[in-house]
Amino acid sequence: MFQWKRMRQYKVYRKLIVSYILLVTLTVSLVCSLLFYVFSSNAVKEKDRQAKTLLTQISYASDVVNNQIINIGNEMINDHTVISYFNEDDDKIRNYEIFRQLSKIQAIYPFIKSIGIYKPANGSLLDTAGIPVDTEALAQNTKKYMSFYPRKVTVEGANGNMPYSLITFVLYPDFSMTSPSKSVIYMNMDEQYILNTIRNISKIDHDVNTFVMNTQGQVLSHTDSSLFLQDLSGESYIKRILSEQQDEHSFIAEIENQKQLVTYVKSEGLNWYFVSVNPYNQIVANIIELRNITLLTGLLLVLVGFVISLYLTRTIHNPIKSLIGGVAQVNESAGTYSKLDEYQILADAFSQYKENEESMKFNLHKSSRAIKETYLLHLFKGSMAETFAPEEWIQRIEDELAGPFYAVVVFKIDNFAKFKEREDLKDQALIRFAICNIAQEIMQQRGQADLLVTEENEIAMLKPYAKEETQRELPAVVADIQSVVKSYFKLSISAGIGDTVGARGAVHLSYKSAQQYVKFRLFYGHECILDAKRTKQHFMVTVKYPYALEKQLTEAVMLCNEAAIKKKLGEFVQHLSAGTYYQGVNYCSQLMISLFKHFEQTRSLPETNFNQYLEKISEIHSSETIEDITQIITDFLFKVCAALEEKNNHANAQKYKSLIEEVQKYIRKQYTNPGLSLEVVADVVGLSPGYLGKLFKGNTQMSFNEYVNKVRLEKAKELLSTTSEPASRICETVGIYNVTYFSTLFKKNFSMTPSQYREWAAGRRSSGEPE
Question: What sections of the protein cross the membrane (predicted)?
Answer without folding.
Answer: 20-39
